[in-house]
Amino acid sequence: MKIAPVAVLCLTLVIAGCASNPGNPQDPLEPMNRAVYSFNDKVDRAVAKPMAQAYRTVTPTPLRIAVGNFFNNILDVYSIANNVLRADPQKALNDVMRVAINSTLGVFGLVDFATPAGLANNKTTLGDTMATWGWKSSSYLVIPFLGPSTIRDGIGTGVTLYLSPDRDLYATPAQANVAWGLHLVSKREQLLGLEDSVQEAALDPYSYTRDAYLQIRAKDVGAPSPSAADDMDIDQLMAPDTSSAPLATAPK
């Protein structure tokens, strides 16, 4: 099953190479991106959002937090690898300690003891690694089912999905697929209300989402802030609902 999302992502990147639009220098693929955005929005309204709402309704808050913590602990393992690739031993050691504490005292990551202990939750992706080694600016890209990204981060996501060593944690591929389905539902539940904030704040939700995402990623990788998003209150946008565990990082 892990080949399917990678194939979709690769197809998107191939199409991206053939698309162009000079209207926005940060979004030369805008016609294609808008089409994918529209598709994702329909899928979200029909499937993802209802599932996330049902998950919130039937799952007690402590259990939702535990599920989020479990998957965040797995993401810390990826963060270790990427901080090693970035030649950042301090952050890599921080992440090793987070995984060690949360996997033992936290019972396989269900409880987050590391953050209250003062260990930074600095999730790092392959996109961040490529930015560290020089690829700081990258064109905007909307990935089917996954949403906002960039060409750089899309490639990083594709490689990560292909490797996905965490699948070895599960006894069968079916269990792995169920687990990652739960992960996606959990992340979508944490973002419930964000779509309403975007709809209320913008005449063009696509442009607003794009500019907000590019500003977040520019801040993450230390690139100049996109001028179109200078006046946005990103902290307010990314905190539409506090009824469940916060998302570990901004989308990448």
Key phrases:
disordered C terminus; 252 residues; two-stranded antiparallel ribbon
Plain-language structure description:
The chain has helices spanning 3-16, 30-58, 61-85, 89-104, 126-132, 151-163, 173-190, 194-201, 205-221, 234-237, and strands spanning 140-143, 147-150. It has 252 residues and is mainly α. It has one domain (3-237). The protein has a two-stranded antiparallel ribbon with strand order 1-2. Strand 1 (140-143) and strand 2 (147-150) form a beta hairpin. Helix 1 (3-16) runs antiparallel to helix 6 (151-163), helix 3 (61-85) crosses helix 7 (173-190) and helix 5 (126-132) crosses helix 6. The protein starts with a helix and ends in a 15-residue tail after the last helix.
